[in-house]
Amino acid sequence: MNEALDATLRDLMLRYQQGDAQAFDELYACLAPRLRRYLMALCRATAVDDLLQDTFLQIHRSRRSYDPARPVRPWAFAIARYVHLMSLRTKRRKDRPSVPLDDAPELPVPPEVEGLARRDELSRALARLSSEALETVLLHHVWGFSFEEIGKMVGMSAGAVRVRSSRALATLRELLRQP
Amino acid sequence: MSEPVRPPEGLRAQVEHDLRPVKPLLPIGRRLALLVPAALLAWMAAPVLLGLRDDIGRVGPSLAWGASAVQLALALALILAALREAVPAQSVSRPAASFLLLSAAGLTIALALATNLVSPEREPRSETLASWRFCWTGEVLAGAPLLFVLLVLIARGLAVRPLLAGLLAAMGAGMAVDGGWRLYCNYSNPLHVVTSHAGAVAALAALGVAAGAVVARLQRAKTRPK
User: Fold this and answer.
1) Based on the number of CB atoms within 10 Å of its own CB, is B150 exposed (0-12), middle (13-18) or buried (19 or more)?
2) Residues with Cβ < 8 Å from A123, sequence gap 6 or more?
3) Structure ipTM over 0.95, yes or no
4) B5, B152, B167, B226: which to substitute to probe chain A, counting the most A Cβ within 10 Å?
């Protein structure tokens, strides 16, 4: 499924690099919902419209940096991550904004733990993970990025990402066992 | 039926305002291949223009040419890492970047000590400010064009960690130049080599980090729409 999506996105990106406005619209329609959820998970906030818009502006300004030999999604997610980090630095906010668990956005649930509890309990347990652990779990288990792709997105080795992901899943299971 | 997702009007207008066709950057491997001649020029500058050191025979081919070739290879690895840092989703891992940077610093100092061990200055030449300044300035000037080209390439991409990208590029340029400069400079005295030669590499590194900070500032300014 991801292969077909990657092929579609690559074609759209090539047309967009050639100056096709329609391709930008289609690219936005494909990527915006995914990037919105990623930004929501990074920020632990539901109001991410500004960040999403900044991400697409940055995608537009950096469109020449996309290498057609590689998939679009890791490139776009890496730009979203960059925009989020820039926003944190600019606003001098702390790494983990103190969003009450009840106000945290509903996070996508990895299939590995889907059957372990009710969806709202799973979402609350996910929200208790550290930002780095949550990001790794979502990128790999929900959005299907390989450990190598995630490593290149966040500047870590694939092995370190694998360890972080596995520890995060163990923590998640532990949290779900707690009454 | 759900509404199709459309970009907001403001974003769409900004994109349409600047929707000229762009040529994608060459793949990183090809860009590195194009930079190899520039790195070779920086490496060969001192031995070709100024000549070889008097004791090159005593130093021996392995420690002279072999070690300098290793420095050039390390320079290319650093340049490759810098080019990767300038493309989203191609970042190098922190351990890999640390390994490359520490290897560059360690190799420069180790070669200075090893060269002095094999071919010490029998009658130590007095270290004059002029000789110190000549080597320092020469290395910085020889490395500056390569560093400039690398920084332009980094600025044309989107470096997620611009300071690291600048540092890797500068150390790459510094290693390429230093590999050649040690084939020319007659001073084996580690004090001269570490302060003047390695000092020049450190100066290039500082220049690279400063340029990276400028790139970061420009990128941040561009992120928010006016």
Assistant:
1) buried
2) A104, A106, A107, A109
3) no
4) B5
Q: Are the Cβ atoms of A65 and B16 closer than 8 angstroms?
A: no
Residue A152: list chain B partners with CB under 8 A.
89-91
Three-state secondary structure readout of A66-129: CCCCCCHHHHHHHHHHHHHHHHHHHHCCCCCCCCCHHHCCCCCCCHHHHHHCCHHHHHHHHHCC
Residues in A closer than 8 angstroms to B21, CB to CB, are 17-19
Residue-averaged pLDDT of chain A: 86
pTM given for the model: 0.89
| Among A24, A83, A155, beta carbon nearest to B93 | A155
pLDDT at B213: 94
- Look up residue A105 and give its amino acid: P
pLDDT < 70 stretches in chain A: 1, 46, 92-107, 109, 112-116, 179
Q: Is A32 on the interface with B (CB under 8 A)?
A: yes
With cut-offs at 50, 70 and 90, classify the pLDDT of residue B226: very low
The beta-carbon neighbor of B24 closest among A17, A56, A61 is A17
**Which residue of chain B has the CA closest to A80?**
B88
Nearest to B220 among A70, A90, A151 (CB): A90
Residue type, B142: A
In this prediction, residue B200 carries a pLDDT of 96
Instruction: Let me know the angle formed at the C-alpha of B78 by A68 and A80, rounded to the nearest 5 degrees.
Output: 45
Question: Scanning the structure block, which residue is given the tokens 């029998």?
Answer: B122
Q: In this model, does residue B29 exceed pLDDT 80?
A: yes
> pLDDT tens digit string along A23-70?
999 999 999 999 999 998 888 776 788 999 999 999 999 999 999 999
Give me the half-sphere count of Cα atoms (radius 13 Å) on the Cβ side of residue B4.
8
Residue with the larger pLDDT of the pair B218 and B68: B68
